[in-house]
Amino acid sequence: MGNTIRFTLDGKTIESSDGETIWQAADRVNIPIPHLCYLPQPDYRTDGNCRACVVEIEGEGALAASCLRKPAEGMVVRSDSERARKSQSLVMELLMADQPSREKAHERESRLWEWAETLDTTSSRFPARDSIDRDLSHPAMHVALDACIQCNLCVRACREVQVNDVIGMAHRGHHAKIVFDFDDPMGASTCVACGECVF
Amino acid sequence: MQANTIEVMAGRFRNSDGRKARPYTKGRQVDRLTKAEIKALIGESPRRDLLIEYLHLIQDRHGHLSSKNLAALADEMCLAQSEVYEVATFYAHFDVVHEGENPPPPMTIRVCDSISCELANAEKLVHDLEQASLKDVRILRAPCMGRCATAPVAEVGHNHVDHATLKKITEAVAGKHIHPAIPDYIGFDDYCGSGGYRLWKNCLKGRYSPERILDDLDTSRLKGLGGAGFPTGRKWRIVGGYEAPRLMAVNIDEGEPGTFKDRYYLESDPHRFIEGMLIAAWVVGIEKSYVYIRDEYPAIIALLKEEIAKVQSAGLADHLEIEIRRGAGAYICGEESAMIESIEGKRGLPRNRPPYVAEVGLFGRPTLENNVETLHWVRDIIEKGPKWFSESGANGCSGLRSYSVSGRVKEPGVKLASAGITIRELIEGHCGGMLDGHKFKSYLPGGASGGILPASIDNVPLDFGTLHEYGCFIGSAAIVVFSDQDNMKDVALNLMRFFRDESCGQCTPCRSGTEKAARLMAKPEWDMELLEDLSTVMTDASICGLGQAAGNPINCVFKYFPEDL
Ligand SMILES: Cc1cc2nc3c(=O)[nH]c(=O)nc-3n(C[C@H](O)[C@H](O)[C@H](O)COP(=O)(O)O)c2cc1C
Ligand code: SF4
Ligand code: SF4
Ligand code: FES
Ligand code: FES
């Protein structure tokens, strides 16, 4: 382990060793920071795409993803400032706009719904995107991309953790879409049904 | 699983002995013939980073990418099918065609629908083209083609039609004029004849030291002209300070709507940039330079290939390997880290920082990324002396700027003028004033990203940093001028649609925020609370400059043009 530094998070002074991210340090001292695309498991690379975990760092213009950023000596970080909380909950609200409602959710206890509740964001004021069909082609798993938040975890699971290389993120922008092979029905794809992508 | 998108029926995916089951022969099989064809096309020992180049080869040969060919390519490259597919579908210039689907018609017409072309009635042109029902042709909308001074613009195949009309386009289609026109530029011999490459040869002879060049760059106060304005001398020193091998990426992606200065310099005097690149690589100690050119500039791709080959055969580039790369229709690849991903053969997703590309860039190596115009000025700065450049500014600013001016002015075009002149000086002194019958109302100081300023703010110097207090920035100095005939609400919607279409889709605030903003902004009434919230989350929480700037048009309309709402 490298040298130890001290930084403040939400007013608390925290000691941290080299290599740890702000999120990990926060977790260690029981300061919860929302996170969706980050899975605190060793095999999973941190990607920093959902932006649910953004924090305000004194002296920096934009907010930073706490799942990626490492604290530095003397850094003053707030995960609970008005500005940080606003973006955290707006991220939830944006994702929620494109989800089936919680009553109809495939999985009511998913992290999205739990964090949204923690942040008091239980419904969305934003208009929904055009709807997406479900893929029921596989006998063992169903793909319900209408609930997808493009967090890319299943791609990492399939490509980097299991090295099965079946799942990809195709297209771009708001058309970005999880695909099996060439956007084939899952049941016809090279999927080996390892189940890693279901976490 | 976030939202339980992939649901498992319990216990059904393992054999009784607990090993992974593979109960079906699944996935797309590759036939030998197709594989041989692909191999012949892309050659022996394919390189992972050349995936996009290979996709171009297939698309150019067949007019589309069939799943059969993609599967063979994946197989040949030992890549997952999904990896090939996700790259192919990221870029707008590739047409993936699945089994059973019809390939696109043999000819494609792209009509620019970005802001300057919209002002010049691109909408009507699209409509007229659709009505004309041309045979075996498809009509697509496309973002800014870097020819905004001659709006509206269309592209027939790879042939750009300036001041496009239905008649001009149908003639190009009928005559099968689909190849780019190669401009009349200063070639290698002429460039050498007028003192070109003398500076570079003197560097090689030791008459200049790298330190001397760096000092001159510092004194000149040259700042990156790609938009971020980072001091060039300082950037070169930083990259040079990291351990070798170091690499370079030259940014010729010029996609910011309203910008066409890079095209102008490359189509008139390409060697000035090549000389600048050679000097940069020598000063910083670079092994290999990747020259990334947007696919919308086919003439430049062709001419640079030719001219760089001449420089190489003249023995002037012995210390530097140079590779030309062709983009494939994605504005985001102009963002430096997205460009690096694209050069590596991947989807153009900007990277989270730190680390910065200067330290961890291409293939994990320290990388110098410069805009092509930044390199263009290196020779003049050294030859004419750094003060020539630094003292060229106006109103307290320093340096020269190449303003790309379009919109409602009499003489649009690239205007080389002092950094720090005002919009009034630019319009009256360099563009022949406003078009007849048009009264100056507002302007974009920095393309789609830099916000919208009203004519009342007409005395601020146009330079890096000076527009910050107005919620705007100059970026690539793409100035689009509007008149009393233009509605700023419509302008802002056009800009937001551009961001929505060009967002890489990686981060929630930008992927979803631009989509929702474009929906809300298309309504007759703007919901101020929702749009301001979207602007906040995009600005504060996006990964890169695209999302961080996407709220600017919203903020500026609320602030400066409430009467247009
Ligand atoms: C969304 C986005 C698009 C960009 N597009 C371009 C571009 O088309 N050309 C360019 O030179 N720089 C572009 N940039 C800036 C580059 O990231 C980078 O700053 C620049 O190429 C560095 O070179 P310079 O220091 O010589 O300006 C863009 C930045 C962002 C955030
Ligand atoms: S399908 Fe993949 S990308 Fe979508 S929410 Fe699930 S894990 Fe994330
Ligand atoms: S801000 Fe937009 S373009 Fe940039 S990384 Fe996020 S989604 Fe991609
Ligand atoms: S958890 Fe940090 S960006 Fe998603
Ligand atoms: S070429 Fe159409 S806006 Fe630039």
Beta fraction of the residues of chain A?
Answer: 15-25%
**Spatial order of the strands in the main sheet of chain A?**
2-1-5-3-4
The biggest sheet of chain A, with number of strands, parallel, antiparallel or mixed sense and barrel status, is: 5 strands, mixed
The residue-averaged pLDDT of chain A reads 93
Amount of helix of chain B: 40-55%
What are the distinct ligands in this entry? flavin mononucleotide, iron/sulfur cluster, FE2/S2 (inorganic) cluster
Shape of chain B: globular
Structural class of chain B: alpha/beta
Radius of gyration of chain A: 18 Å
Number of helices of chain B: 24
Average per-residue pLDDT of chain B, rounded, comes to 95
SSE succession of chain A: EEHEEEHHEHEE
Number of DSSP helical runs of chain A: 4
Poorly predicted runs of chain A are: none
Give the biggest beta sheet of chain B: 5 strands, mixed
- Strand fraction band of chain B? 5-15%
Looking at this protein, list some descriptive labels:
heterodimer; A: about 200 residues; two-stranded antiparallel ribbon; globular; B: alpha/beta; 4-stranded mixed beta sheet; binds flavin mononucleotide; binds iron/sulfur cluster
Explain the overall architecture.
The complex is a heterodimer of chains A (199) and B (565). In chain A, helix 2 packs across helix 3 (111-118). Helices cover 20% and strands 16% of the residues of chain A. Chain A is built from four helices and eight strands. In chain A, the strands form two sheets. Chain A has a five-stranded mixed beta sheet with strand order 2-1-5-3-4, with helices on both faces. A two-stranded antiparallel ribbon of chain A has the order 7-8. Chain B has 565 residues and is of the alpha/beta class. In chain B, strands 13-12-16-14-15 form a five-stranded mixed beta sheet. In chain B, strand 12 and strand 13 form a beta hairpin. The model of chain B is unreliable at 8-24 (pLDDT under 50). The interface between A and B is large, with 79 and 66 residues. The structure holds flavin mononucleotide (FMN), iron/sulfur cluster (2 copies) and FE2/S2 (inorganic) cluster (2 copies). One iron/sulfur cluster sits between chains A (148-154, 178) and B (1-3, 5-6).
